[in-house]
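Hi R.,

Here's the chain you asked about this morning:
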Amino acid sequence: MLKGMRRLLVLCLLALSLALAQKSGGGVGGRPYTPSPPPMSPGPAPTLPLPGPAYPGPVVVYPGPGGSLGILPVLVFFGLVLVAFWMVRGLRQAGEGPGASAARLRLALLVRPEAQRALRRLAEEAETTTAKGLADLVDEAALLLLREEPAWRFADYQVVQGGEEEVLARFDAWMLEERSKHRETFRHFEGRKRVEEGYQAQPEPGGRYLVASLLLAERRPLAPKGPLTRAGVREALLDLAGSSPFSLLAAYLSWTPEREGEALTEEELLLLYPDLSKL
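And the predicted structure, written out as tokens:
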């Protein structure tokens, strides 16, 4: 028991030291901006025709008990009301059904300064306020990571399905978790950029890894994967790249370390990302 407590204390101290010495990190993405419609300006007041000479109005004949209409108009009216009710209910249920997905792919690869520069350049140039810009960001991020396949070492892929509000809540939670893993030295979110210029890189002996996380919320079902292999990672990246401006709800790309000269050690990697599987 004493040995177990000592081990737990060592792990806690290691976790605390890592938290105090977080590496740099970057992030880019957001939700598409949908502008509200402009206010309606009141048009000119309608002009009514001046009263002309009096003339007899139309004569309305209400059928009596022997008329041919009877209760038919009332039945038609209530029938239309019921049809409209069931249509609205069906559309609402379709919008609330599990047709949306949130996905997160984490990929740990051997760090290269060229890859860090490419990620930063992609984040700098991305359009993060429109659905098309965010879909292009996902495509370019997937392409960049596919080109780094020889450097892949660990990966993790998670998918959650549900209604739009549910998957957006999961997306926000995942994004917050990713941001907590590093010290944010660069962020480009929904059109706003923030850079920590005074940050000094913290190179460490044994540092060799970079982790990139691609998050997506979509109005389409994404299939979860089994035990990840290299082929499974490629398939997951291609699935995410299939996003379109019409189906995308939110997108975010996160990576650490962001500054050249830094890299995660294997101890840091496994402590910060315990769900990673070796490829």
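Residues 13-20, 93-97 have pLDDT under 50 and may be disordered.

Let me know if you need anything else.
M.
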